Amino acid sequence: MTAGVRGPAVLVAGGSLVGLCTALFLARRGVATLLVERHPGTAVHPRTPGYNARSMELFRAAGVERAVRQAGPWQLDGSGLLVAATLTSEQVRWLEPPAMRGPTDDFSGLTPAEPAVLSQDLLEPVLRRHAEAAGAVLRFGTMLESFHDDGDRVTAVLRDLETGATREATVDYLVAADGADSAIRARLGIGRDGPGVLDHQAGITVRADLSAVRHRFAVGKIDNPEVSAMVRIVGDRLTINVGYRPGDGESIDRFTPDRCVALARVVVGIPSLAVTPLGVSAWQPSAAVARRFSAGRVFLAGDAAHVMPPSGAFGANTGIQDAYNLAWKLALVLDGSAPPRLLDSYHTERRPVAEMTVGQALHRGRAWFGEPYPVSGAMLDDVTVMFGYRYGPGPVTEDPGAPSGEPGTRLPHAWVTRGGQRMSTVDLWAAGAVLLTGPGGAPWRDTVPAGVEVAELGPDDWDRVGDGGTGAMLIRPDGFIAWRSESSPRDTAVRDAVAGMLAGNTDKEIFR
Ligand SMILES: Cc1cc2nc3c(=O)[nH]c(=O)nc-3n(C[C@H](O)[C@H](O)[C@H](O)COP(=O)(O)OP(=O)(O)OC[C@H]3O[C@@H](n4cnc5c(N)ncnc54)[C@H](O)[C@@H]3O)c2cc1C
Q1: How far is the CA of 17 from the centre of ligand 1 (A)?
Q2: Distance, CA 95 to ligand 1 centroid (Å)?
Q3: Which of 36, 30, 39, 37 is nearest to 11 (CA)?
Q4: Dihedral (C-alpha) 7, 13, 18, 20: value to the nearest 10 degrees?
């Protein structure tokens, strides 16, 4: 083993979607970041096809929204799920999600960022490139073997899987983005709540000439007497997800290459189709939330922290949002601007949101696909799940169409003019915390501590965004309202509010 050197501040274990996002968000805030991923490169399977508009806001804030859009998003013929007997059937129908407000959920009043439909194997190289350009060091083919948190630092043993060589890395914090079966979570002894494994699926990937398939869709449901499957197409690759029952003696080994070829022909509806089987993987739609999202200097993000069935397409998005929430907090603690207790708010903020989101994915599985998933409470609409989650005391969600403007809620999107430039309020917090005021906000400027920008809005803009009066709003680096005041500046008010934000408070009683 080679001796470790004091290097990066944060080690990210796992370099799939959530690990890459964490590395990108940290590096853009100047945090020295090392990421290790045991696979030799980024995802080869298409996996997650959709990034919702809130995730796209975060990509926008991280400066990669355009690059993500340019990476080859799919053009779709319709929204919702394509339902057909085969992929070449003349007769198809579109099954809309059960919780849309309208047939296509127009987000333009809520955000400047449209959702993107893009497979994960095309997204990950974009995240990788931008994380590296921002200064993160990414080591593929490298595994975190063990770690020790001594209370002051975390020391990890990393193994290069090609050479077998190990080395130590000593860091301030470790982020476990090591997926649903997180060994780091297990090693920390963190249990999970929730129903657990819901189903057993075989994910079959084949290559074939799919030019006879005329429909363009994100996810299709193929139902005929021979097969019932959820399918996706990326280029000449077809992914077929079919359920099987291990309890009834079925096993993943029964999906032999010949059976996969036969299934693909039935799904496409061309008995003579030339098909090359590429692989079969077993996966279990599951619903579970880790009891703690952190322990000492270690934080769980993405599937390591929560798993949910794909119904609703929330899994990856929730992980991206974890990564953003954690990254700005780690950056401020590491540069000494915030006390370490800010990091406690990662668990207190993200866990209830994850729990709510898992519950909503279960609701959608039941309402959309007739799955016998356990549900409780009401099914919320998609817009509320995406934009209406809130932090701090009180309900976990609110209707983003009628925002309360309370601390702990997302600053609603509005078009405003700043420095002669038209921009969204979403663009105001991308660089860090910002104090929004109306015209004549100069007196506020004198009360603001270093590290917080002041954005003085014109009268019309301030009427729509703020209260139109002489007050101010403190916006966190993730676009959530930390504090608001409806009265004129007082000497210590903003300083106290910033200190509260940096201590992880989103308690409106404290800040009002
Ligand atoms: C069929 C299907 C469809 C889905 N559709 C959607 C959708 O439409 N929208 C959506 O939002 N979500 C969707 N999801 C969920 C989404 O794919 C996951 O939530 C997301 O990929 C989780 O990302 P992650 O980075 O947290 O974990 P993972 O993708 O599991 O990545 C963990 C990584 O950590 C690495 N690793 C593990 N241990 C170590 C170690 N010790 N050292 C180094 N590396 C390690 C692994 O190799 C792996 O690359 C879908 C999931 C499935 C299965």
Answers
A1: 6
A2: 26
A3: 36
A4: 40
pLDDT at residue 506, as a whole number = 64
Domains of the chain: 10-72+118-194+287-350 (3.50.50.60), 75-114+200-283 (3.30.9.10), 415-511 (3.40.30.120)
Q: Is 115 in the pocket of ligand 1 (CB under 6 A)?
A: no
CA distance 308 to 228: 21
Instruction: Answer whether 11 contacts ligand 1 (Cβ < 6 A).
Output: no
pLDDT at 2 > cutoff 60: no
Atom of ligand 1 nearest to the CA of 52: 11
Q: What is the pLDDT of residue 394?
A: 86
Q: Is the shortest distance between the CB of 39 and ligand 1 below 6 Å? A: yes
49 lines ligand 1 (CB under 6 A): yes
Mean of the pLDDT values across residues 452-472?
A: 90
For ligand 1, whether the C-beta of 54 sits within 6 Å is: no
pLDDT tens-place string over residues 115-167: 888 888 889 999 999 999 999 999 999 999 999 999 999 999 999 999 999 99
Show Cβ contacts of residue 63 under 8 Å, excluding neighbours closer than 6 positions: 28, 130, 430
